Amino acid sequence: MAQIKCHYEVLGVERDATDDELKKSYRKLALKYHPDKNPDNVEEATAQFRVVQQAYEVLTDPQERAWYDKHREAILRGGLGGGDKYDDDSLDVFQYFNSSCYTGFGDDEKGFYSVYEKVFETLAAEDYVFMDDREEDEEFPKFGGPDADYDEVVGPFYAFWSSFCTQKSYVWAEKYDTREALDRRMRRAMEQENKKLRDAAKKERNEEIRALVAYVKKRDKRVQAYKKKLEERHAEIERKTKEKRAEELRERQRRLENYQEAGWSAMSELENDLQQLEARLDQNFSPDDIYDVQVDTMENGTGENGTNGIIDDDDLYYSDLYCVACNKAFKSLKAFSNHEKSRKHKEMVAIIEEEMRLEEEQAKQAESDEADAVDTGQEKQEESDVGERTGEIVKDNIGLLCSSEGDEEEEQKQKLSKKQKKKRRQKVLVEPAEDTLTEKMAETSISCDLPSKR
Question: Which residue windows does the record flag with biased composition (Basic residues) (predicted)?
Fold first, then answer.
């Protein structure tokens, strides 16, 4: 069987030749192979003339030319409409899935890089003839040698071939000749079936080549070296990250320690100030003075808790921090000091002072009125009687207090603890006692003058 030639090759033109170029080439070849021009070799000239004439007829018809361009490879391989009559001369890649196809990883002809460089060059050449715009398409990446740079050669090569898609049409895998269809429905069914066969053949070829790429990449020493480099780089980054994190933790711990030291230093300063204050109070006041003032306050009226001169343990503790003006007791010196500075406390003190002033004026006015009203002897007798009764009451109270002063003083000193005695030394505790004593004395004086009004 004679070998089938491509129509473009018969006419000697490119696949994108125009109608004028086809006509010009046909006339030239027709004159050359016309039987009348070859009387010595009529049969051979006639056969060649028919081939030229057939090629010209197909390529000058737009529909015939389009169909021929689509099925050109199938026609040349003799597989058009047969499905199993064509001879696929594509490279068999399965023979390269074996380490016996190369010897070592050197730069010699039998080495790993030389063998597979030729394999991929062959695959690229097979696909290159099926590209429409050969000059505009980028070249296939080179496989490179053992010393090729990964970023410039090795990386781009595997990136391209790992997602390889063949440009072959695989029209020779078609089973039906659509020109033999009886109607449009049948032709459409034939086209759909042929498309399935083409896609299946193309998919199979793509998977074969991608599998070969994965096989080669796994054994490529350049890829292994690059992976090791990446691992070392990753380990270095991780090490630096851990060091930075540890340094941040140490810095945070250092700041925390400095903050704690500053806090303890501030507390120490406060303790020193408190000790100095207590020392000054100890120098200015003695425990006996504070105790005497407190006892005198109890003797001149009822106790802080409302009982007549009876002092319990709670009174001994809270009387040091008791505000007479506001009738409040406090559990800490700081709270008592803040209370004395408050607006409400100052207002209460001012009210009490005003009341005492008014009472003193009323008492003086009452004395003046009584002096003017004394006209009769009966009134003088009543005043004398009242004076005598008042004197007796005062004498009795003074005698009672004097007789029990020693015992009560000893008993009160025994009840006070060291902590309570220390609290009584403070200056702020003396002022409420003095105010209380003054107030009680004023009340006693007023109470003694009240009977004269009668």
Answer: 415-427
Sequential DSSP letters for 333-357: HHHHHHHHHSHHHHHHHHHHHHHHH
For residues 58 and 7, give the distance between their C-alpha atoms in angstroms, rounded to a whole number: 8
Q: CA-to-CA distance for 34 and 154, rounded, in angstroms?
A: 56
Stronger pLDDT, 146 or 327, i.e. the higher one:
146
pLDDT at 401 over 70: no
Q: How far is CA 32 from the centre of its chain?
A: 84
Compute the distance between CA of residue 134 and CA of residue 117 in angstroms, rounded to an integer: 21
Give the Cα separation of 429 and 297 in Å (integer). 13
CA atoms within 13 A on the CB side of 305: 13
Work out the number of other CB atoms within 10 angstroms of the CB of residue 299.
17
Mark 124-158 as b/e (b = at least 16 C-beta within 10 Å): bebbeeeeeeeeeeeebbebbeeeeebeebbbebb
Half-sphere exposure of 361 (CA within 13 A, CB side): 6
Nearest alpha-carbon partner for 400 in 309, 279, 288, 335: 309
DSSP symbol at 152: I
| 3-class SS of residue 330 | coil
CA 276 to mean position of chain CA atoms: 51
Nearest to 30 by CA among 48, 15, 14, 42: 48
Answer whether 0.70 is exceeded by the pTM: no
Q: How confident is the model at residue 232 (pLDDT cuts 50, 70, 90)?
A: very high
Query: What is the Rg, in whole angstroms, of the alpha carbon atoms belonging to the chain?
Result: 62
